[in-house]
Specification:
The complex is a heterodimer of chains A (131) and B (390).
Chain A lengths: L5 H5 L1 H6 L1 E5 L5 E2 L14 E5 L3 E10 L12 E7 L5 E6 L12 E12 L4 E10 L1
Antiparallel strand pairs in A: 1-2, 1-3, 4-5, 4-7, 5-6, 7-8
Chain B lengths: L3 E8 L10 H16 L6 E5 L3 H5 L4 H8 L7 E4 L5 H14 L6 E8 L5 H9 L14 H15 L4 H19 L13 H6 L2 E3 L2 E2 L8 E10 H7 L6 E10 L14 H14 L8 E3 L5 H10 L8 H6 L16 H5 L3 H17 L12 E8 L4 E9 L1
Parallel strand pairs in B: 2-3, 2-4, 9-10
Antiparallel strand pairs in B: 1-7, 1-8, 4-7, 5-6, 8-11, 10-11
Helix pairs in contact in B: 4-14, 7-11
The chains are: A mainly beta (131), B alpha/beta (390).
Chain lengths: 131, 390
């Protein structure tokens, strides 16, 4: 399915620049931004930026890749927790897969994620790399 | 609220059903359920199906199935909660009968998954995850459960080799059960070594840790318990004594504890409360073992085992057919197959057979109270039902 539509364009602020929302009530950072904070019902947020350094809390190695990722071979993918409380799911790049470890410090980088459809248009976003 | 009974169940042979269409598969199972109950008319239909639109391009499913079942103009609805669609259909039907809106209600599920290739099936299944923030970055379903598994192993500090064996024991046990189920997709014994040497899919999960892609359907007929006592005497009576449903964050990353299936705990608490029961009152359960790690985590969230001890229980044989708490006597998703929308309905079929005492070679010695747990996505939804022979 083609990704290069309004659907791609509208997420650019989040995927390219890490635009996030900070709860004015609890200070917790939400990425992507939400309109309602879970549990307390707060609707007041201020714009903030996702922390770009965090900690890997779990990971796997995807051996059978989904459509669009077939040419990336086996790749490590994990969940990263940021100091502000937000968590992201992202590939772990520039690191041999056997060296990926839970608890390792990683940094977000702007990367190509996959090539879209027959035209092969590059789709960008974030991956993390070891610090 | 009226008490509700299960008066008929039906399931066909699951697997790669090349010669059968989506509608054929469902109507076959539905007719088996109607014949089992001894009814030729239903008042209403709920069918669970995750994504017939992506699998065969067919939406507006409930009307199609009511039509081919010869039941128009009954009201009919397709319900969807990813892999928990079948369980949700059971809950909707239960509510309609309990509320006094209808008397004879069919609840079922169907999925025709093999009309698309592997990549097509992976894409369709991944639609149960967060498309923008998980799938966009290369997530697969085995990948999500693999991340649960790695976090679980680290959190509970289980040596990797022990943990890997615990996972394999779940697969070995479920295949041993499925061997006795004539409707199972994979009626083959697997050894610990075979599981542990099978192809890596998403570390640490291997091919034989994963449930398969399946075509299949299942259905059950519900009616008020009082009506069942007087009008439907074909089988020993079975009552639905508890029903609970719960949701959790869709994205795995957003869970407070990514190793714990909170929606399963909450749905089970609700069902236990309604039934006036505790985990120890449950004789056996059919649970959502889409991956071996899922069965471990589910049996903990249901309160059967201490958190972090689900794997030990499987390894010690506690969850085997002759163990203290048999889990997935049908073979589970692992061996029986996992036509996603049908899975929750098929759990009811197995529990009904066990409670009636007509489960043939799979018959458990003690089967008075059975629990069904059906889960959507990486745990974003769960439906739990408790059934009792009355």
């Amino acid at each position: 399915m083609s990704q290069i539509t309004a659907r791609y364009w509208r997420e650019i602020p989040r995927r390219y620049r890490g635009e996030a929302a900070k709860s004015t009530k609890t200070g917790k950072v939400f990425f992507p931004p939400r309109l309602v904070e879970p549990k307390n019902g707060n609707r007041q947020f201020e714009p903030t930026k996702l922390d770009y350094e965090g900690k890997l809390i779990t990971y796997t190695v995807i051996r059978i890749a989904p459509a669009g990722f077939e040419d990336q071979g086996a790749y490590a993918l994990g969940i990263i927790e940021m100091p502000g409380g937000a968590r992201i799911t992202a590939q772990i790049a520039d690191c041999p897969i056997e060296q990926v470890k839970i608890g390792m410090k990683v940094r977000i980088e702007f990367r190509k994620i996959f090539d879209d459809g027959h035209e092969g248009i590059h789709c960008y976003g974030y991956k993390v790399v070891p610090m | 609220m009226r008490d509700v009974a299960v008066i008929g169940v039906g399931i066909n042979k699951w697997g790669e059903l090349w010669e059968k269409s989506l509608r054929d598969i469902f109507v076959e199972a539905a007719l088996l359920a109607m014949d089992d109950a001894g009814v030729d008319h239903i008042d209403s239909l709920y069918v669970g199906s995750m994504t017939p639109g992506l699998f065969v391009g067919q939406e507006h499913l409930a009307s199609l199935l009511a039509d081919y079942l010869g039941q128009c103009p009954i009201p009919a609805a397709r319900v969807e909660s990813a892999c928990a669609s079948g369980g949700l259909a059971v809950r909707m039907g239960w509510m309609e009968v309990a509320a006094g809106v209808s008397d004879i209600v069919m609840v079922g599920g169907v999925e025709k998954m093999l009309d698309v290739d592997g990549a097509g099936a992976t894409f369709a299944l991944a639609s149960a995850a967060d498309q923008e923030w998980e799938c966009y970055n290369g997530v697969t379903f085995p990948g999500l459960y693999a991340m649960i598994a790695n976090a679980y192993q680290a959190k509970h500090n289980i040596p990797f080799n022990t943990f890997r064996k615990q996972l394999a024991h779940v697969a070995v046990k479920n295949h041993a059960n499925g061997l006795l189920n004539p409707n199972a997709q994979f009626r083959s014994k697997v050894s610990l070594e075979q599981v542990m040497n099978s192809t890596l899919i998403a570390d640490p999960l291997r091919l034989l840790d994963c449930s398969p892609i399946t075509d299949g359907a299942a259905a059950a007929i519900l009616c008020p318990l009082d009506m069942a006592k007087t009008k439907f005497k074909n089988h020993p009576l079975i009552a639905i004594i508890g029903s609970g449903a719960a949701t959790d964050t869709l994205a795995l990353a957003d869970r407070e504890d990514i190793t714990y299936l909170k929606a399963t705990e909450v749905a089970a608490e609700r069902a236990y409360k309604m039934a006036g029961m505790k985990p120890e009152d449950i004789d056996f359960a059919e649970v959502h073992d889409c991956f071996t790690i899922a069965e471990m985590c589910v049996t903990e969230a249901l309160g059967f085992f201490e958190v972090g001890k689900g794997g030990e229980a499987a390894m010690a044989g506690v969850t085997a057919r002759d163990g203290a708490k048999p889990i997935n006597p049908s073979g589970g998703l692992k061996s029986k197959g996992h036509p996603v929308g049908a899975t929750g309905a098929a759990q009811v079929v197995e529990i009904a057979h066990q409670l009636r005492g007509d489960a043939d070679k799979r018959q458990l010695q003690k089967a008075r109270v059975g629990l069904a747990q059906n889960m959507g996505g990486s745990g974003g939804s769960t439906i739990v039902h408790i059934f009792k022979a009355v």
